[in-house]
Design goal:
The structure is a homodimer. Chain A is an alpha/beta fold. In chain A, about 35% of the residues lie in helices and about 25% in strands. Chain A is built from ten helices and 13 strands. In chain A, the strands form two sheets. Chain A has a nine-stranded mixed sheet, with helices on both faces. In chain A, strands 3-2-6-7 form a four-stranded mixed sheet. In chain A, helix 6 crosses helix 7 and helix 9 crosses helix 10. The radius of gyration of chain A is 20 Å and the shape is globular. Chain A starts with 8 loop residues before the first strand and ends in an 18-residue tail after the last helix. Chains A and B meet through helix 7, strand 13, helix 9 and helix 10 of A and helix 7, strand 13, helix 9 and helix 10 of B.
Chain lengths: ~325, ~325
């Protein structure tokens, strides 16, 4: 497709300074937050309009990284005080994360204000923030083509009513497996996804980490494995980078349908695979189009089911005597 | 392909009477054991020669089920004493199984004797039994085309030396994720599979349960999701049914290569999906060819990545400013 048909994406979410320790290393006060991972990931596909807030301590280097990726920062509020700061440590196999500290700082009193130029954004991503704020965003935007949301266990526990209101108004909802089980009470992940769909979104995407992703839309089910990696250094932001690749790629598709959503999940998977290979945004801030396409093709090959000469099956099944 | 090119499969493994309880029900003294699940599964594809042992209490109904599936029982020894008996209980979400009792009975002193007619079997499955017995089988067979083995945590812990001898002599090895990590000490499943390949097998298949399967052969990696199921009643024997579908289907393929192995993993996945829907062999003992092919096509659709008009990617990736 031609560049003119790329549609811009609006993202509203957290901008943070992260301190993360994993068995593979450590980062301190590094650029992070859901809107950051999403924006950088989506920037490989289309124009990104970022809405969020930073404090006075936000480093120039952060602005430089976003600018280099062409992310529009008109909606980034600079407030008096300190930037949202978060620190966490991963266990040996990266399967568990312990949050050490969450200082909301300027985020505590933040209410997103969507610049006039962004209000008719066709593609909107409500990153993982308080669903009350997600509702405030929805009240400011006009006739979006596709609204996608993410959330977390905290809001499922403590802001359930508001979260249900958000879900009733979005087209696509992202959940990880635990969250999908938590909000529905269904252990089976297919049943959980179907139950979420009954809350509103016509497409539910369950992120299963190293086990890939499941997309459910009515009777259309799709499973995609994760990109095969031998080394994972820092899983922080993987879900947001995944969403950025997905929404960014979808914003370039001629149609939003099962086929374009499936392909966009591949792009999400590819960007997420880079994200977890480095600390923070280190690895995703300077990707090459060639590298992204190489992993895309490699993922297709990884999941490819070869055709057989005789159609579906290769032989007539044997019957019992 | 024509029926004449189906090659028979030899399986040596346990034949048991299982008592299993799950939140979905209960079975007592039901037909079970690795060789049984494998044989019934493989019987939908090709001729199966079963080698194992039963005691005097083995029910006629068990023989009838196997005979109806055309499984050759010349190698089934009837010994004085009781049949191998096993009982277990699953937890609420079926994620954990507690073995209540294992009575080896006639299996305790059993040494497999391969009937002369089976010794040149082209396809051999060494089901999960003591690796010492697996080695005894290998010493009795002549020039097999493909030898596939399975094992379990017990042998990795207590018969490691013998198990390593088996792995050095097989073409394909099945492991579940935990076993693959246990035998190699590698947490990353790709690294674990590669480490197992260095022990001998040129193809390593890691069963990940509800998360599907990973096949590694040199640089050729393949991931396939599990068949999507909303209800799982009894996971017992799923791995053996999976192996039966895989080896049985492969025994009908014109060539053993990446494509036929990938397709055979689909058949394994389909048969395993039936296995877990019922208790014991209830669900897999009377499958229809039509039903198997329907799930096969449905699984292809579930994992299908649609082509895009412009080849791999749908658009030229956007470059930063």
């Amino acid at each position: 497709m031609t560049p003119e048909t790329r549609r811009p994406v609006l993202v509203v979410g957290s901008v943070a300074l992260d301190s993360v320790r994993s068995p593979h290393g450590e980062a301190r006060g590094a650029l992070g937050g859901s809107a950051i991972y999403f924006s950088i990931a989506a920037s490989y596909f289309t124009d990104v309009n970022l809405v969020g807030v930073v404090g006075e301590d936000f480093p120039t280097e952060g602005i430089r990284i976003l600018s280099r990726r062409g992310v529009n920062l008109e909606g980034l509020t600079h407030a008096a005080g300190k930037t949202f700061a978060w620190s966490a440590v991963y266990n040996e196999d990266l399967g568990e994360r312990t949050t050490l500290q969450t200082d909301l700082n300027v985020f505590e009193t933040y209410h997103p204000k969507i610049p006039a130029a962004y209000r008719r954004a066709p593609f909107v991503f409500l990153a993982n923030i308080n669903p009350e704020l997600q509702l405030e965003v929805l009240s400011q935007i006009e006739r979006p083509r596709l609204v996608v949301c993410d959330t977390m266990n905290l809001w499922i526990d403590f802001q359930r009513t508001e979260l249900l209101k958000v879900l009733a108004r979005v087209d696509v909802a992202f959940f990880n497996s635990d969250e999908a089980r938590q909000i529905t009470g269904e252990h089976n992940i297919l049943k959980a996804a179907a139950a979420i769909a009954r809350l509103g979104p016509r497409r539910v995407i369950v992120k299963k980490g190293e086990h890939g992703v499941l997309m459910v839309s009515g009777s259309d089910l799709f499973s995609l494995p994760a990109y095969p990696l031998e080394v994972v250094r820092d899983p922080t932001g993987a879900g947001d980078a995944f969403a950025g690749g997905f929404v960014g790629s979808l914003a370039c598709a001629p149609r939003i349908d099962s086929a374009s959503c499936r392909r966009s999940l591949l792009y999400g998977t590819v960007i997420a695979s880079y994200a977890v290979e480095g600390f923070g945004v280190d690895r995703i801030k300077d990707l090459s189009a060639k590298g992204i396409e190489r992993r895309y093709r490699s993922l297709i090959e990884h999941a490819r089911i070869p055709d057989s000469a005789q159609g579906a099956g290769e032989f007539s099944l044997r019957r019992a005597r």
